[in-house]
Amino acid sequence: MSELARVHLSKSAPEAYKTLAAFSKAVGAIAEEAEVDARLKELVQIHVSQLNGCAFCVRVHVERASKAGVTADTIAQIPVWRESGVFSERERAGLELAECFTFIHEDGVPDDVYNRVGAILSEREYVGLSWILVSINAFNRVAIAGRYGVPPREDLVGEDRDAATGAAW
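^ that's the sequence the OP posted. Answer follows.
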């Protein structure tokens, strides 16, 4: 195997990837049932993807966050969430929990974090958010191991023009 070409895990083992996608869908249903809102869900998935260095998943979840109404300013503040005033108490709890799940090998979820997050989120929300964190960490590993590309965006003005004329489809 060369440094440049990597096995594309989702294409090389489609049944495994379909299973991971089904897992992700089940996790989404659990999170929705637990009333984990789209904003929090996307914020933590961006943060995990940033921490893991997964450019592919960062792009996916920034787009989803934007559709959920998260501003560019808020997205830009994610890496410095502790110093920023733009996040709610619930979002701060989610971002802290995201770090624990991403670096689980270091300390697991320490008691002080578990207790602090548990004082803010309901048990159902904690469970839903935890499964989201497990899922995004798995997807990050698939994309990073396969070096999924993130090419530059085309000229957005041109894209808008094509979309307006129907040429994009």
